[in-house]
Design brief:
alpha+beta; Heat Shock Protein 90; 5-stranded antiparallel beta sheet; 17 strands
């Protein structure tokens, strides 16, 4: 249990340590940088892969379209040749057959043989041509290859459409003339042209082209996932591929593709089969059909995704190596700081020193020197506090010694007072009463008395001194009544008043006066004691201002100064201002405080 507790404690300390924080920050910055670089790299590679794929797809479509146009152009040229200049050259054979309905059978047969030979010579070696027919408006037909008869041809829906329209050329989408199999052959698409003479339509030339041409030219599904389809822009129907098993788009996807608002740009992205695809459009050669090529982005990015997976694995390995390296590096950097932290944690009141030494000039070394200096200052302050406490105790002892057994004296004075009353000696009774009241304050265990109590104490003291000096001085008190309840250190002012009488007023022959003023300025209590006695020279003032407790001739002044400094520190003041043979002013100040706040100054 103890082992588990130590491990838990060490773990908690680690997670709160500077090493852990630096490691977290460094790793976060690493992954942030890696993430940004990966994102930018992915976007650039995706963009480049898309551009490359679009160029490749466009090139493939262009090649397929050109090959389709080349193969179709040859057959289209045959239909164009047959439908033009019918009464001239070799075309006249077809013209004679179409226009001479009243000739005898032998002559028509000759016309037919000549026309068919001509058509055969034109159509021979056309590998994708399934059949070609020249038909008049009565159903008579000259044909090459597998073709339907004239009556069935006239029954086709596009036949009358071509005859009645202004168009000379029509491309018929892939179809079977007889789905039931009446006319064998492959699925074909057709080129149909009008045959005109003197502005009148006299027939139609129709070429059936095997749909294998479309398959051979536009089937690219095995090339990097590319796919192509051909649409009839008029009906938005699929021209290629037609077989259901080869359909690569559903009706909904086809509708989405054909209605895309970006189709006019010829290059756009849309979702097909649940995958984002790159789509390109071109117009098919010769025909008015639209060729659409597309490729899924997952195929475009397949190589990139493979490369990215490899890069991610490499990045993961680098991250592990980076974390280990950073951890070791941070541990080396923070090792001295950890030692310093451990040493500082062992400092207490009994051990005010560091048990390590760091000589480096870096931040840790500077911190070590600052802490060492701080510890030295703490030792000095503690020593100073101890010295002050000793001084304070010595002052209290001296104050007790000064009482000269006050209990015995207090009882003796009560006896003298009783005898003075019996003998009728009023002055002895007054002095005894005043001294008794003074001893009552001295016997009190309190450290502080109110301003009113201290003022009464001084008045009792001066009453006694008036008998001693036989009316040589007059005393005046100016005390603000609002200050009566504030506290003052006990027996603080009596030594000052005594010095004023003994060393100021007593040596001179003129009548003396003593003024005691207590007033407030902001949050400070001021006490000013002034006499018109002998006064002090500047040298004597300097001596009093620096008097020590050990100096028996100025023990009262030194005691007051020490008590004020110990109790109030820098918030007190004690000044002496004097002119020889004129006056002496002693002024002291300290913060105003009551019984509730007296604990702040003990």
């Amino acid at each position: 249990m103890k082992l588990k507790s130590n491990i838990k404690q060490q773990t908690l300390l680690f997670f709160h340590s500077l090493t852990w924080k630096l490691l977290c920050v460094t790793v976060c910055l690493f992954f942030l940088f890696a993430g940004i670089v990966t994102r930018v790299w992915t976007q650039r590679m995706t963009s480049q892969a898309s551009e490359t794929a679009s160029r490749d797809l466009y090139s493939i479509m262009q090649v397929s379209n050109n090959n389709f146009g080349t193969a179709l152009k040859d057959i289209n040229s045959v239909t164009a040749l047959i439908s033009s200049n019918m009464s001239f050259g070799l075309n006249s054979r077809i013209f004679n057959y179409l226009m001479n309905e009243n000739e005898d059978d032998q002559l028509l047969l000759q016309y037919r043989r000549d026309a068919e030979d001509y058509i055969f010579s034109l159509c021979n070696f056309k590998s994708y041509l399934n059949g070609l027919a020249v038909s008049d408006l009565n159903g008579n037909t000259l044909s090459y290859g597998i073709f339907m008869n004239g009556k069935d041809l006239q029954a086709q829906p596009w036949f009358q459409e071509l005859i009645q329209s202004d168009r000379d050329l029509l491309f018929v989408p892939p179809h079977y003339y007889d789905p039931a199999g009446g006319y064998p052959g492959d699925l074909v698409f057709s080129i149909a042209r009008k045959i005109q003479h003197q502005g009148q339509v006299i027939g139609i030339v129709t070429a059936d082209i095997k749909c294998s041409l479309l398959e051979d030219m536009f089937n690219v599904q095995n090339v990097n996932g590319y796919s192509m389809l051909i649409l009839d822009p008029d009906t938005e129907s699929v021209i290629f591929p037609l077989e259901e098993e080869k359909q690569i788009l559903t009706a909904q996807e086809l509708n989405l593709l054909t209605t895309s608002p970006h189709r006019k740009d010829g290059y756009f992205t849309t979702e097909l089969g649940g995958r984002d695809c790159l789509v390109i459009e071109q117009n098919a050669s010769i025909t008015d059909w639209t060729v659409i090529g597309f490729v899924p982005y997952e195929n475009i990015l397949e190589d990139f995704m493979t490369t990215r997976a490899v890069v991610f694995r490499i990045a993961l390995v680098c991250a592990v190596v980076f974390i280990i390296t950073v951890t070791l590096f941070i541990s080396i950097i923070t090792r001295k700081l950890t030692r310093l932290s451990t040493a500082v944690s062992k400092i207490d009141s009994d051990q005010l020193e560091l048990n390590i030494t760091i000589q480096t000039k870096d931040e840790v070394g500077q911190l070590y020197r600052q802490i060492t200096y701080m510890i030295g200052r703490i030792r000095e302050l503690i020593e100073d506090i101890r010295k002050r406490e000793n001084e304070k105790r010595n002052l209290e002892i001296k104050a007790l010694q000064a009482q000269i057994n006050p209990h015995f004296l207090y009882n003796t004075l009560n006896t003298i007072k009783f005898l003075a009353t019996v003998q009728g000696a009023q002055n002895i009774q007054s002095v005894t009463q005043a001294l008794s009241d003074m001893l009552h304050v001295n016997l009190s265990p309190r450290k502080y008395v109110t301003v009113a109590e201290e003022t009464a104490y001084l008045k009792h003291y001066l009453e006694i001194q008036e008998y001693r000096f036989n009316g040589k001085f007059t005393s005046y008190f100016a005390v603000d009544d609002a200050l009566n309840d504030y506290l003052i250190p006990k027996l603080l002012l009596q030594p000052l008043v005594e010095n004023a009488l003994l060393h100021g007023i007593a040596p001179v022959t003129r009548p003396g006066y003593l003024q005691i003023r207590i007033f407030q300025d902001k949050d400070l209590l001021y006490i000013r004691i002034k006499d018109n006695g002998k006064g002090l020279t500047q040298e004597e003032q300097n001596t009093l201002s620096h008097a020590l407790d050990s100096d028996s001739s100025h023990i009262g002044i030194a005691n007051i100064r020490s008590r004020l400094e110990l109790m109030f520190g820098s918030r007190q003041s004690f000044t002496i201002n004097s002119k020889p043979d004129l006056y002496t002013i002693v002024e002291l100040s300290f913060p105003l405080f009551t019984a509730e706040s007296a604990g702040d100054f003990t």
